[in-house]
Every structure is written in C-alpha cells, then in structure tokens.
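seq as requested:
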Amino acid sequence: MWGFWWIFPLIGLLICLVFVVAMVRFMGGRGFMCMGDHRSHASDEEADLRREIRELREELKQLKQSR
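struct tokens:
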C-alpha cells in the first residue's frame, strides 16, 4: 500500500477536472448531461425561422409544379 500513495492525488485531480469541465459547459450554454441549454429559452425565434423555411419550401414546390 505504501507504493500507491500517488493514486489518491490523481483521483482528486480527476474529480476537480470533471467539476471544471462541468462548470465550463454550464456557463457556455451547452448544458451538462441531462440539463437543457440556455438557448432553449429563445426557441421562439428558432420556431419562427423553421416555419418560414417550411413556407418557402412549399412555395418553391408550388412554383416548380406550375411550370
């Protein structure tokens, strides 16, 4: 057991590294594991853009069919 003293500081550093990565991801907006990201609160803009894209695609289909 006296020869493995160096494992415990490595485990502590690994735990600290996991916490740092979790905090960076949380502050960066991507979220961590099961948490949602910060951008999900502004999803109304995304929904509007998706709706507009869908309408434009339908309009393109109608223009192609009319030719």
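The chain has one domain: 7-31+42-66.
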